[in-house]
Amino acid sequence: MRKSIAGALAFLIIGSTIGSGVANAHQPLVLSDSETTASKGPLIVDGTLSFAVRAAFTKAGQKKAFRAQFKEGEELAVQYLIVDKKPESALRNKSLPTLVITSPSGSKVTMKFTERTKFFEPYGGVNYLYLGRYNSKAQGGIYSFEITSKSRAAITIAVGEKEGVVGEVIRGTNEAPKPVASSTPKPVASSTPSPKPTAEQSGYTMEKVRANNSEASCWSVIDGNVYDLTKWIGSHPGGRGNILSLCGKNGTTEFASKHRGDPNPQARLKGFLLGPLAS
C-alpha cells in the first residue's frame, strides 16, 4: 500500500493515509522569518515522529531552516508538498524553494522534484501535490534542513512517520539535548550556579497575553501554556474568526469545545508554543 501525506489537516496538520483512507495527524511546525539558518531554527528532538513543517516566502533569496535529531539506523523520511492552488501550483519546479538536507557527517542531499502526485485532503477540502520524497537510514545525530526561496511561495516539508505521539520541539537554543550524565558526578567549580535564561524568568504573564490580542499578534492561553497563534489565523479551514476569538485571553474552554472528539488536540498546538503561563 502506498503511504500519502494529507496536507493541512486542521491548521497545517498533514495526515498520513494508507490504502484504507484512515488519516493520522502530523504535528504542525511553522518556521518564523527569523529562523534563517539551521542553528537559529527549531530542533525536532525525535525525527521519527511525524511533523509538518511549513515555510512561507514573500520573495526570492529568503532562507528558513530547521533541524531534526535521529539515532543511528532510524528511518529518515522526508516529503516535499505544495497546495495544488495558484500561485504555488502554477510555479515551475525551477521557481520553487530548494531543500538541502545535511547529515551529521556533513554530506548534503538536495531534494529532487520527481513527481506531481495529486492528493485530496477531505477534512479541509484541500488539494495537495507531492513533488519529492527522500528516504534513507539515518546517521546518529542532528540533520539540518535548509530551504531557500526562488520566488514568492509556500511549501510544507513532512518529516517522520510515527503517529500518535506528541513530539518535542526546542526553540531559541543551538544545543541539542545532552546525554544522561555519568553516575559519578564531577565537582562543581563554583558554589553559586549561574542562572540559566529561560522563558519563565521573563514570564509569559496574563498581562502580556492580553496585550497581544490582535490579528498582527495573537497570543492565547490554553491549558496553562501560552501560544502564539498569529500564523494560524490565515490558514484555519473554518475561517479567521475561529482563531481571532482566542486572541488575548484564556482560550482553554473555547479551544476544547471546538475539538471535542479529537483524541489529542494539544498536538495541533505544538509548533506554536511560547511557554508556560507565569503564575
Radius of gyration: 19 Å
The helicity comes to under 10%
**How far is the N terminus from the C terminus?**
50 Å
CATH class call of the largest domain: Mainly Beta
Number of helical runs? Answer: 4
Strand order of the largest sheet: 4-6-14-8-12-11
- The parts where pLDDT drops under 50 for at least 5 residues are 1-24, 178-184, 194-202
CATH architecture classification of the largest domain: Sandwich
Look up the CATH topology of the largest domain. Answer: Jelly Rolls
The percent range for strand residues is 35-45%
Overall 3D form: globular
Helix and strand composition category: mainly beta
Mean pLDDT: 79
Summarize the helix and strand pattern as letters: EEEEEEEEEEEEEEEHHEEHEHE
Report the major sheet: 6 strands, mixed
Secondary structure tally: strands: 19
Domain unit count = 2
Protein name: Cytochrome b5 heme-binding domain-containing protein
Region (Disordered): 175-203
Pfam family, one: Cyt-b5
GO molecular function: heme binding; metal ion binding
What do you see in this structure?
This protein is mainly β and 279 residues long. 35% of the residues are buried. It is built from 4 helices and 19 strands. It has 2 domains: 3-170, Jelly Rolls, CATH 2.60.120; 201-276, Roll (Flavocytochrome B2, Chain A, domain 1). This is Cytochrome b5 heme-binding domain-containing protein. Belongs to the cytochrome b5 family. Residues 201-278 form the Cytochrome b5 heme-binding domain.
